[in-house]
Amino acid sequence: MTQVRTPISTSEEVRSIRDSIASELAGNSSFQCNQWPAEQRDRIPLANASLSIGDSGTTTKSHTASASPGHLQTSPSVLTEGSLDDSQWSRLPLDHQAHLTYHQNYLTSHHYFFKHEANFFIHHTLLEHALTYEPLRFAVVGFAAFHSALQNNDSNIQNFLCYYNRAIKLLRRSLANGDKYTDATLMTILQLATFEVRQSIFSLPHTNKLQEYLGDWINVLGHQKAAYAMLIELYNVSSIMNVEVRRKILAWYSRFDLFAGLMSGYETVLGREWFCANESYYQVQSRKDPSNIDCKIEAAISSYRVLAMDMAWLFSRLPRGKISVEDFTKENKLITERLRTWRQDLDPLIANERYLVQSFEVSLEKDLEDVVDPYLRRGLYKGALWTINFMLMDWIALDIMHKYQTAIMLKQPSPPELGRMALELCRLFEAVEYWAEGPPGSVLRAQASLSIAALFLPRDQRHAMWCRRKMAMIEGKG
Questions:
Q1: What pLDDT shows up at residue 229?
Q2: Could you tell me what percent of the chain has a pLDDT over 90?
Q3: 424, part of any domain
Q4: Which domain holds residue 409?
Q5: Cα 221 versus chain centre, distance
Q6: Distance of alpha carbon 157 from its chain centroid, rounded?
Q7: Are the CB atoms for 306 and 338 separated by under 8 Å?
Q8: Looking at the 3D structure of the chain, how many domains does it have?
Q9: Closest to 455 in 3D by CA, of 443, 471, 467, 472
Q10: Around Cβ 146, how many Cβ atoms within 10 Å?
C-alpha cells in the first residue's frame, strides 16, 4: 500500500512536545508512601536469597516460578551469580528487594504484553537499568507490587500506588532538571504506560458497539505521546534496529501506538518507516538462519504490525473525507488480501506436529455452562510455538475488526461469520487458560482478543455469563 503521509512532527513540534512531557505525565495523587508494614514483608517471597553478583554477566535463577514444563526457555533470568553489583542490591530498601525478586520469579513477557518471548529483556536488561535509574526502579517495583498483591489477595492492593506516584514524581523532576534522555528514561514511561492497561471500557468515536478493555485512556495517550517524543529524539529508523534492547523498546512502544490507532480510529503516531524497518530486519535475520524459529516468529509479528498499521491508517481516512469511497474500497481489498496471505504464510512455520497439543492429559467433563470446547485435539501449540496461539488470536481479532469496520464504513450489514470467528477466539483463549504448562500471565496476553470476541457472541444469558466469568478471572490476575 502506497501512503503519502504528512510528517508527524517538525523540529519545532518535537521541541514543544519535549517541553510538555512532564505535564503529560501529570497524575500526582494524594496517596502517600508509608513505611512498609512488617507484617506484610513475609507475603512477598524473597526467593530464599538476594541477588549474588559479580562481573561474568551469566544469568541463572535460584528458583524459577515462572518457568513452565514444556515451555521453551530461551532466556535466563537475572537472579544469578554475576549479573549486577552486590552493593547495588544490598543498598536497596527491603521492600524493593522483595518486590524486585517477585518480579524476577513470577512475572513474564505476558505481563508486559510482548507478542513474543522477551524474558531476558524483562528480567535482565530492564532490571539493570532500574538499578541505576531511580524513576524506573520505582515503576518496576510498583508493577511487581501490584501483581504480588493480586496473587496474595492482599486487601491493601492500593499500596502499589505509592511506588507508582513516586516514579511519576521522580521522572518529572528528572525531566524538569534537563537530564539527558536515555534508554532508561523511555523505559520508565513505557513501564508506567503498562500500568494503565487495565479493564475500563471506552468506545471508538465512529461506532457505538466496538469497545476494548483498557485502563485510563487519557493516561495511556499521555504516556504514549511522551514516549513518542523521547523515541524520535533518542533514535532514528536505523539506530533503533542496531541494538537488541532498542528493538525491544520499539516493540514495547509499538503496542501502545497500534492499539491506540486501531481502537480510536486514528492512524499511528509513529511513521510507517519505523514499522517497515523492523519488518525488514527480522525478515533478513530469518533468511540468514532459516532454522531459527524465534526469527521466523519475529518476522511474522513484524509483518502483522505493518498490516495493522496500514489498516489503522486506511480506516482513519474515510470518516475524515481524506479518501473517496471508491479509493477506500480499492485499498481495502488489498488489506483483505494481505490478511489472507499473512495467515497462509504461517502454515510452513506451524506444520511441525511435535508442537501441537494432542491431549490435555486430563479427564475433564465439559462444563455445561461452557460455550466452546477448549480441549480440542491439536487445537493448541506448545513449547517453542506457544507464541503462535496469541498470533492466531491477534489475527482473528484483526480480521473481525476489519470485516466489521468495513461494513460500518460502507454502510453494509455485519458479516454473519463474525459470531463463528468470535467463538474460535474464545476456544483459543480457554485452551490457553487450561493448558497447565503455559507460563504465568498467559491469559493477560490474550485479554484484548477476548474483549473483541465478546462483542460478537450470541446475545444470551449463557454467553454473557461466560464472558463475565472470564473477565473477572482476568481482572483477578492483573
A1: 87
A2: 53
A3: yes
A4: 352-381+401-478
A5: 15
A6: 22
A7: no
A8: 1
A9: 467
A10: 23
pLDDT category, 128, cuts 50, 70, 90? Answer: very high
Q: Pick the residue with more confidence: 154 or 298?
A: 298
Q: Is residue 421 part of a domain?
A: yes
> What is the per-residue burial (b if ≥16 Cβ within 10 Å, else e) of 325-344?
eeebeebbeebeebbeebbe
Cell of 206: 465512529
With residue 224 as reference, give the H or E element that holds it: helix 217-234
- Quote the CA–CA distance of 434 and 430 in Å, as a whole number: 6
Lookup: cell for 300: 511474522
CA distance 140 to 123: 11
Give the residues across from 52 on adjacent strands.
Answer: 81
pLDDT surpassing 60 at residue 237: yes
Cβ of 47: how many Cβ atoms within 10 Å? Answer: 22
Whether residue 155 lies inside any domain: the answer is no
**Alpha-helical segments (H) within 91-182:** 94-106, 119-120, 126-130, 134-151, 160-176
Q: Which residues are CB-neighbours of 75 under 8 A, at least 6 positions away?
A: 117, 118, 119, 120, 121, 123, 124
CB atoms within 10 A of CB 393: 23
Q: Please check whether residue 430 is in contact with residue 64, taking contact to mean a CB–CB distance below 8 angstroms.
A: no
Does the pLDDT at position 457 exceed 90? yes
C-alpha cell at 59: 544469568
CA 165/CA 413 separation, integer angstroms: 47
The answer on pLDDT for 6 being more than 70 is: no
Q: Is residue 278 part of a domain?
A: no
Provide the 3-class DSSP secondary structure of residue 442.
helix
pTM: 0.79
User: The cell 499511528 sits on which residue?
Assistant: 268
